[in-house]
Amino acid sequence: MNRTAGGARLRTGALVLLPALALAACGSHRVPSGQAPTAAPTSTPSGTPSDTGAGDLAIARSETREDSVYPDIGDPLVDALHYDLGLTWDPAKDRLTGREVLTFRATGDSATIPLDFNEQLAISELTVDGQPVEHTVAGTHLTVEHPIEADEQYELGLTYAGTPAPAPAPSTRSDFTQGVGWSVTGDHETWTLQEPYGAFTWYAVNDQPSDKALYDFTLTVPSPWSGVANGVLRRTTTRSGQTTNRWHLAEPAASYLVTVAFADYQHTDLKSASGVPIQVWAPAGGKALPGGTSTAPAAIDWLEKVLGPYPFDSFGVVVVDNDSGMETQTMVTLGDTDYSLSPAVMVHEAAHHWYGDTVTPADWSDVWMNEGMAMYLQGMWEAEQEGITIEDKMDQWAAFEVQLREAAGPPAAFDPAQFGDGNIYYGPALMWQELRERIGDDAFFRVLREWPAAQENGTADREEYWDWIEQETGEELSDFFDAWLLGKQTPARD
Ligand SMILES: [Zn+2]
To answer: Is residue 350 part of a domain?
Structure first.
């Protein structure tokens, strides 16, 4: 993510000393530059069965866990393999109608199935393996009264409808004031931003990042609007004034990286220099990307030179009416502000496709693994644009990093009520520069390229990452990582 909101909040105050903090939020981390229609059908089953066969689901098998920062969301008993989501949006009524089929593996024995869901949505039918089953929804918890056994696979069917609302965000960032999850704009368009959670506001889900799954989406809305989601657009059909888009995501994704947006979209087809197909989806008549749609392939071209081949089959950008930026899987979701639409944010969010999307933190205490590297790469890109050295850029950031760490805690032991603050961005970025100076460019960039490739479609925690880097470099780095990531004070820089 990138932080714009934090910036807005700080800009209103007399915090002239912290220009960077304003720039620091991840939805779109603002970085200091220089230095300073009509009714929809009542239900829309996805129609055709998913084309993801059972044999292909092995790639979505996960080692689930309870989150150490947000243990109330997600449950390690469920290993979601595939979500088939048929969603119809009625802008005239702000009403979402959903038909979901969730295929999952149980990781243990239990008398009930625990999932995350939104009590504002009414469930009209719930089945397990085709049989109707009782359930309760309390707060964000959906409890399905059906026993499960370890390593058995189940298919849960759900029909629901209502007006989804965002959930409160565990954050003080200004771009989080609307909450997390499904949002509806004043023009009845919809978008999602669900880090560290919030997918449960619009479908039943195991909403914790260690549990990756495959997705198919069937999105229906009155024409000429259309629905955008992750993956590849397989088919568009228009019937009785309704447009249906079918999207297929072939690489498993954590739920926080899943997105759906409905609006009057136009799209532009592009390609990276290496041939990655790219689609830019922008609302008709909306704000144009500064620099034009070519900033999308330009970001991929630059990142591929540093990090190696783009990790997915397709890349896309969807522009929505909010203040942030978000690295959704195979997509970048950009808010409709000058900063969120800037080339720097495009680079930051696209960098997350290597750091966050193909290799994902298994636990939210390790979100620094995403933001530190995305920020460092953004810093390299900015230094190039500004004609300064990376050392100069890091000096600029170091001038305010101390205050970010004091405000929200060490990067890898942050205050749970201040998710996404500047502390998880800038301190880890400074750390990567220190490592680069310690081990040299050759080893440093080899580590940058090989970690996401080695962890393709997986999840990892800090111990796995630290062990891997020590093995690759032959360096003993436990004191180094402890000081930079868990220290209350910023270590001395070389
Ligand atoms: Zn980010």
So the answer is: no
pLDDT range class, residue 2, cuts 50, 70, 90? confident
CATH (domain of 75)? 2.60.40.1730
Confidence of residue 412 (pLDDT cuts 50, 70, 90): very high
Distance 343 CA to ligand 1 centre (A): 14
> The domain containing residue 405 runs over which residues?
2-36+356-486
DSSP secondary structure string for all residues of 297-317: HHHHHHHHHHH-S-SSS-EEE
346 occurs within a structural domain: no
Within a domain: 212: yes
pLDDT reported for residue 4: 44
Average pLDDT (433-453) is: 98
Which contiguous run of DSSP H or E holds residue 221?
strand 213-222
What's the 153 CA to ligand 1 centre distance in angstroms?
Answer: 35
How far, in Å, from the CA of 326 to the mean position of ligand 1?
A: 7
Let me know whether 14 and 125 are in one domain. Answer: no
Last residue of a domain, one of 211, 246, 271: 271
**pLDDT per position as a tens digit, 22-44:** 333 344 444 333 333 333 333 33
Please, which residues have CB within 8 angstroms of residue 444's CB and are 6 or more apart in sequence? Answer: 432, 435, 436
Question: Average pLDDT, whole number, for the chain?
Answer: 90
Domain match, 367 and 462 both:
yes
Q: Is 142 helix (H, G, I), strand (E, B) or coil?
A: strand
Say yes or no to pLDDT of 213 above 90. Answer: yes
Instruction: Compute the distance between CA of residue 301 and CA of residue 362 in angstroms, rounded to an integer.
Output: 28
State the distance from the centre of ligand 1 to the C-alpha of 452, rounded, in angstroms.
16
Cα(291) to ligand 1 centroid in Å equals: 21
Q: Please indicate, yes or no, whether residues 93 and 16 belong to a single structural domain of this protein.
A: no
Number of structural domains (the chain) is 2
**Cα of 371 from ligand 1 centre, angstroms:** 5
Together in a domain, 74 and 186: yes
Give the pLDDT mean for 450-479. Answer: 98
Q: Is residue 418 part of a domain?
A: yes
Contact between 138 and 116 under an 8 Å Cβ cutoff? The reply is no
Q: How far is the CA of 116 from the centre of ligand 1 (A)?
A: 25
Is the predicted pLDDT of residue 470 greater than 60, yes or no?
yes
* CA 349–ligand 1 middle distance (angstroms): 6
Sheet strands (E) in 349-436: 359-361
What does the pLDDT read at residue 218? 98
Are residues 216 and 118 both part of a single domain?
A: yes
Instruction: Find where tokens 């009930």 sit.
Output: 112
Residue 104's beta-bridge partner residues? 80, 154
Is pTM beyond 0.85? Reply is yes
Q: Compute, in angstroms, the gap from residue 426 CA to the centroid of ligand 1.
A: 11
